[in-house]
């Protein structure tokens, strides 16, 4: 059987969330080969490289912009936006801009 892996771009500026994502992928033995970007700028640099992604998961609020700054560059990549802000207006805007989904996560 082939070892099929999913090439994933995870854009998250919070180091704790980056670590939690990494631990979860390893703990669950998910078939992800992932690249983590901590900013819009870093994600843009990664996207101009030759690396191909099957999916992108973007935090909505990033230190140097928002997920909307990256959506146009991800047109051919299924993209999910995650945020702690439960704003329906942002969700509708994200879907209209080409995001496949918009998920709200809750923090304590």
TrEMBL record:
Kinase is among the record's keywords: yes
Keywords: Kinase, Phosphoprotein, Transferase
Domain Response regulatory: 7-108
PANTHER family: RESPONSE REGULATORY DOMAIN-CONTAINING PROTEIN, STRESS RESPONSE REGULATOR PROTEIN 1
Modified sites of kind 4-aspartylphosphate: 59
A single BP term in Gene Ontology: phosphorelay signal transduction system
SMART domains reported in the protein's UniProt record: REC
InterPro entries given in the database record: Bact_response_regulator (IPR050595), CheY-like_superfamily (IPR011006), Sig_transdc_resp-reg_receiver (IPR001789)
Gene3D superfamilies on file: 3.40.50.2300
The keyword Kinase is assigned to this record: yes
Protein name: Multi-sensor hybrid histidine kinase
Pfam families: Response_reg (PF00072)
